[in-house]
Specification:
heterodimer, A: mainly beta, 5-stranded antiparallel sheet, B: 7-stranded mixed sheet, 4-stranded antiparallel sheet, 51% strand
């Protein structure tokens, strides 16, 4: 079956460094992608999204890159802060199943002092 | 202000004793979702309501039911909870036919004694 998956289950970075979290997807029919941040004991929180007609989108300290050729999505966090420590999930929406998201397995980001 | 509100945040029930989890939204979204999330895993979709139209996932056990009496409220009923049903239950909302992310509540953590 087709799935969304993450390359690394855990990532540790020094405070102030940039973080890159990667996500592979295999469904070429996906047209919308979302990154969520989930802190312990809380629900997933929207960070940034991107449509398949774009290859880059920037927010405040975050950038999402989409490479449709290799079906790869990444989240870049600039100047990582302790408050960025969380699990990050990518999710995709497939054309034809517009109400549903397929989640990747998640990456635990730990920011070291 | 919270836009997707789940009550209670923590629920303890006995093995086999029916339990109901509730979700309300202030976003007026036409789709409401229930997810199950176990430790260190991605959220798993159980079912969703598109307006009053109930959509069950193929692998959701019959033990799980849902009700949506109006746009704002949705309930998850577990008829006979087993030990394997201990998890975080997340409610989310979305607007169909829009390039908008799903919005999640902070979940109800269910424990089974």
């Amino acid at each position: 079956g087709e799935s969304v998956g993450l390359h690394l289950p855990t990532l540790s970075v020094q405070e102030g460094d940039n973080s890159i979290i990667n996500c592979a997807y295999s469904n070429s029919a996906s047209d919308y992608f979302i990154w969520y941040k989930q802190e312990s004991g809380k629900g997933p929180q929207f960070i940034i999204d991107i449509r398949s007609n774009m290859d880059k989108r920037q927010g405040q300290r975050v950038t999402v890159l989409l490479n449709k050729t290799v079906k790869h999505l990444s989240l870049q966090i600039a100047a990582t802060q302790p408050g960025d420590s969380a699990v990050y999930f990518c999710a995709e929406r497939t054309r034809g199943s517009a109400r549903q998201l397929t989640f990747g397995s998640g990456t635990q980001l730990t920011v070291l002092p | 202000d919270a836009m997707v509100i789940q009550n209670p945040r923590y629920q303890v029930t006995q093995f086999g004793k029916p339990v109901t989890l509730s979700c309300s939204q202030t976003l007026n979204h036409n789709v409401m979702y229930w997810y199950q999330q176990k430790s260190s895993q991605a959220p798993k979709l159980l079912f969703h309501y598109y307006d009053k139209d109930f959509n069950n996932e193929a692998d959701t056990p019959d033990n799980f039911q849902s009700r949506r009496p109006n746009t704002s409220f949705c309930f998850l009923d577990i008829r006979s909870p087993g030990l394997g049903d201990a998890a975080m239950y997340l409610c989310a909302t979305g607007q169909d036919n829009s390039n908008q992310p799903q919005h999640f509540g902070d979940g109800t953590r269910l424990s089974i004694l």
